[in-house]
Specification:
Elements lengths: L1 H11 L31 E3 L6 E4 L4 E4 L2 H8 L2 H11 L16 H19 L13 H8 L4 E9 L4 E12 L4 E14 L8 H5 L1
Antiparallel strand pairs: 1-2, 2-3, 4-5, 5-6
């Protein structure tokens, strides 16, 4: 009958399996030993606000303080690229300068370059025109054989010192066109020595 079948079914039903709760992963605190590992100490630092976190100071990246996660980050492509860039040492600016005392010639050359640059800037002269600067002896030898014109213009600097730029214009048979060559930059007028501002001074 129905009651007998029910009792038989009870004995045939297998017992239920008891599923145990899985063990929760235990978070690890940052260990200072990692700061002494050769390939970690260059970039690994602790996070003061959270003892369960670690930080890569190269990538500015925060991660859990597990050793496996830290090593995985250190072997990552992005981290290795940043690390390689940091290892390239930039030259100090001191390597581009010298401590030797400049000679009078060095000072004169520097002043001439500054004045020439200022003159070209003020008069909106293309810097490509500096390609026409040439050796004076070679230019003098050539000018003895051709006709040429002298162009000059003066410009005062912030110290009220007037300088005159002298340009020579002539026909160059090599290039087949009229050329302009820089000759020199002369000091024409100085507020401290106004008597020097004469035509004779400029002609010299």
């Amino acid at each position: 009958n129905f009651s007998d079948d029910s009792e038989e079914d009870v004995h045939l039903t297998p017992p239920k399996k008891i599923i145990k709760n899985p063990t929760k992963h235990r978070a690890q605190k940052f260990r200072s030993e990692g700061l002494r590992v050769e390939n970690l100490k260059k970039w690994l630092v602790p996070v003061d606000e959270d003892p369960l976190k670690a930080k890569c100071k190269l990538c500015n990246f925060t991660m859990v303080a597990e050793l496996s996660k830290i090593k995985a980050h250190g072997n990552g492509k992005k981290h290795k690229q940043i690390e390689a860039c940091k290892e390239i040492k930039q030259k100090s600016i001191k390597t581009f300068t010298t401590n030797k005392t400049p000679t009078k010639l060095d000072i004169d050359v520097k002043m001439a370059e500054i004045k020439l640059t200022a003159f070209m800037t003020e008069h909106n002269i293309a810097f490509l025109a500096t390609d026409h600067l040439t050796d004076k002896e070679e230019l003098v030898s050539y000018l003895k054989t051709v006709q040429f014109s002298i162009l000059t213009d003066e410009s005062p600097d912030i110290g009220t010192v007037k300088s005159s730029c002298v340009i020579l214009r002539f026909f160059d048979s090599k290039s087949g066109k009229i050329e302009n060559k820089f000759w020199d930059l002369y000091k024409v007028y100085d507020s401290k020595n106004p008597g020097n501002a004469t035509a004779e001074k400029l002609a010299i």
